[in-house]
Amino acid sequence: MALRHFFLVLLVVSIWAFNNVAIKWGLLDLPPLFMTFMRFVVVALILIPFTRITRAQLPWLAALAFTFGFLHFSLLFVGISYTDAGTGAVLVQLGTPIAMLLAWALLKERLSLVQLVGIAISLSGVVVLSGSPTIPAWWVLALLLTSACGWAISNLIVKKAPPITPLTMTGWLSFMAIPIVGLTSWLNEAHQIDALLHASWRGWFGILYSAIASSVVAYSLWYALLKKYNVNLIMPYSLLTPVLAVIMGVLVLGDSMNMFKIIGSLLVICGTAIAVINLRNLRMHARFPRLPLRQGRKKSPTIAKVKEKKN
């Protein structure tokens, strides 16, 4: 990987990690569901004018508006309002092993013994994290796990859906999620407009950072890198997101650390790494290309021309 692209990868995962800090700041001024609603409004306003969809894509985007827009994002924002940024980021990381289990059960995709061990390790981390004082009640843990499930189900929907470009998907599922999240906020929260009008810079920063930096900018860079490099080379870097989120939560927000949080986070992240990282493919990408003269009897055109001139 070119050095500039390596730094771009680190920039993307850092943006995603800091998104948890931005959300916590925004939740100081705004109700969680209403903040999610405003996030989708901003994303839709930026992307909808530049993207188009077909009738065949419409039902799939409607499903994603519920699973990704409501289940994942709304419950993530609500869950983070009751816990710290790092714990929320770690638990949502479980969306990856959950997606693998769902693909195995529903799509009949094969899982190796190593992958199953990794999934088991990551799930054991949830048991450890459940004892952390950063999770005040069982239903907070349930909210964040449901958010992770929403992300996992969304992955299966994307696999079965007709081709949709990433930014088109982001823009239109945000647009379709607006009435769902807006109605839920109206039924469960109060004084939303008043909170928005009196919000400090933290409230507006939380909305704009989550919408523009985390969604539009970071995902645009991420998908550009995925087009340039193999998925197996790029995806493992996403595991840095919860690690950086925990560090940023401690440094920026003053989040506490305890043994439950440290051990549980390590189990979740290490287990997910074991489940998703294909070491054989990584070794293949790490090999140096062989010189042309060592690939059989064919000589390189340049060397052949030099010999012809000498003759």
Briefly, what is this?
By secondary structure, this protein is an all-alpha fold.
- What integer is the average pLDDT? 84
Rg (CA only): 22 Å
> How many strands, what sense, and barrel or not for the largest sheet?
none
Q: How far from one another are the termini?
A: 41 Å
Approximate helicity band: over 70%
Oligomeric state of this protein:
single chain
Helix-strand pattern: HHHHHHHHHHHHHHH
* Protein structure class: mainly alpha
Model regions low in confidence, pLDDT < 50 over at least 5 residues: 282-311
Say how many strands there are: 0
User: Based on CA inertia axes, which overall geometry fits?
Assistant: globular
Number of helices: 15
